[in-house]
Amino acid sequence: MKRRLLGLLVVACLVLAYRGTGNYLRYLSADLRSTLPMAVAREGEHFVVQAVDLEAAPFHGWGQPDRPQPGDRVLEIYDHNGAGGPVRGLFDYGRYIKPINVREPWTLVVSRPCTDGAYERFAVKMPPSVRLRWTPAEWLANLAIDFYLPFLAAMAGLLIALVRPRDDQACLAALLFMALGVTMGPGVSQFPPVLREMSLFVEVTGSHFLPYLVFLFFLRFPTRSPVDQHVPWLNAVFLAVTLAAWGASLVWDFSKHVSFAAASRVDATLSAAGLTVGALESVFTALGALMILVALVSVVLNARRAASADERRRLRIIAVGAVAGLLPAAILLALATARVKVPIGVWVVGIPLIGLFPLSFAYAVVRHRVFGIRLILRRGLKYALVSRGFLVAEAAVIFLALLWVAGSLFSWLGPQPGVAAASAGTALVTYVLTLGMRRVNRQILPVIDRRFFRDAYDARRILTDLGRAVRQLASRPEQLLERVTCEIDAALHPTRVAIFLRPGAVTGLAPLRRPYAACWDAGPDRFDLYVDEVPGAAEMTLPAGERVLSTRTPLARHLATCAAGEPEALEVLVFESALPAAGAPSWPEDVGVRPESGCLADEQLLERFDARLVVPLVTGGRVLGFVLIGEKLSEEPFGREDKELLVTVADQVAIALDYAHLIEQAAEQAALRREIQIAQEVQAQLFPHERPALRTLRYAGVCRAARGVGGDFYDFLPLTADRLGVALADIAGKGLPAALLMASLQALLRSHAPTHACDLAALGQELNRHLLETTDGARFATLFFGVYDDSARTLRYLNAGHVPPIVIRRAGGANGVRRLEPSGTVLGLFPSQR
User: Fold this and answer.
1) Which domains are assigned to the chain?
2) Is residue 786 a contact partner of residue 726, using CB atoms and an 8 Å limit?
3) Under 8 Å CB-to-CB from 259, ≥6 apart: which residues?
4) What is the pTM of this model?
5) Model confidence over 787-815: pLDDT tens digits?
6) Residue 534 φ/ψ, nearest 5 degrees
7) Which of 151, 399, 452, 619 is the most exposed place for a label (fewest CB within 10 A)?
């Protein structure tokens, strides 16, 4: 991490040195407040005059007869002191024209082509340079290019690098903005030696890697985009193109800056291959524009498929800023590469649009907690507003403002400005105002908090909101857990919140499925992962072996202690080493995955979810689950108030989940009673409602189930005009399962009895076969089925394991009562039954 942070700081210093030197030379140095009245360009191995502005003010009244002419080769340049030398490359040209000013003449040595094809050497005495005068539009465009865009981007990149050096995406964003700060930078030919070579390297590197960094960042922010998932090889292709363009540009730019002869040899090499520098620049520019276009498509797709509302809001802000800012940047870059003269009005409008990208990103960082930076900013701002140093700065500003007002007032009142009186009065007023500034600052901080930093949570408000949510969402546990996760995120901003629950602890909730599923067990108790949120930023993990997470007490023991007593949050210890620290707790049985259950062990559970706190969910002496809280985005430890708040929230959640379980059970029982009532009504319809009249028999039947519905039934089946089938049956078991099998048996009997009335043994075998095919062997039935012949007044019957019916005759004695004993065993158990 230290090497990465050091590297980012070095890059930031290089960028600031490049832009700072250019702005100093352009706005503060007296040497660069003018321009030469001629235009030059490289042709082959020479610098050649392209045009001369003879109408420029310095040429008016200039007594020297010689003038430079288009086509002259620039050989040497000397200032008014005679300092200078031969022009071999752009570095020489920039160094020699730098001291030329608007007051002193200078000397230009050229070789001019003659009619015979030879070149004649001339020393031309040149007038002073032309003073630069910018229009208001040019001032706006130059200030935007030189200050607004580069320093806004560089500061955004430096801020992200300083506060999130371990986050890969944050470091990539930092490099992106630093590269953006380099684009459209000044020429380096007039920079001091060493600094000019370094600045040229920075300018070429930043401008060529910017499209690829934009592409790579949005390809994986905050998660892999569909473009990266469907076209994974595109990253390697664009990286290869970027490296090729960067290497070629380094060779070309250093060649023409150091030696025009070397640049001419590069031209010759490309010409031999059928290429030109302009063609290569056009190809690389087009590919850079394509990278930016793919990046914009990726960020728009990620914004549309974001999982949570907060993430969608953040990505939409960044997507709008990226589209509004990067498209103009790509267009202006393409026009500049094609050497198309862009009207100044386009620059005035385009540069602020480009600035929307870092501005929108900075707004999302501060306002919507991208990378977790806003808490760090708030702490710094809070410290500044109440510190003495900030009060001194405020006092200085007040003093200077009042002194200016007082001095102007004294000058207006009299010819001699009373500087001493103004200073004394201003100092006195400043002292009085400064005494109240700290109180004013403390009033300002809540206003800033309400607008940007709503992170200083109010425990009472959170508990009140959760209490209201418990009442409103008690019957909707999934929404309740989502609300709790949002409240924890709003209060503490952890990198992760994971909730594990005992299976079946809450009816209606299902654990996460693969590949997101996870479980942890402690002996007979098992807990599954139901919620896994990464609310504040993209998931961040360190390479294996850099740290070990552990607790002083095994998790199972801590949960058991909380169930028996008062719940407490269990703090997770972090050791920055693959080896356990001295005195660190270690339990061999908790290493790795438990093979008997496939669940995570303690240390693996903590490392997978990067946990810093374990908060139990306990109610009524029972452990419903626990909550894993990740590290704060601000990387500060959890304090005592944080832990107390989390334990209180967990108590409310546990009570709400238990209440939700009771509500669900009550609802299930009510639904079951309703189902039983419906089944009872349906079963009542299955009993016979009509009884065919017989001459010699009067009959009736009634059935009352013990549980509303059951497996007992009777039936009267008219087989022929004078034959009646009488059925009595009992299904093993009670309730709805027995009632369902009863309905099936009744349907079988009604369909088969008319065809098997003469062969009751065959009827029994057929019913037994059907029951064996449609039941699992745990259900069986007893059946009595008799066929009464009204004409013959006889009864033939089949008794398959049923309680024997009783026949009572009029004649008394032993022959007056007869039991119709079973003729076979029960139905649905034995395939070989006859």
Assistant:
1) 36-131 (2.30.42), 136-372 (1.20.1070), 378-451 (no CATH), 459-538+545-578+593-664 (3.30.450.40), 688-819 (3.60.40.10)
2) yes
3) 88, 89
4) 0.52
5) 988 888 888 988 888 889 988 877 655 56
6) -120, 80
7) 452
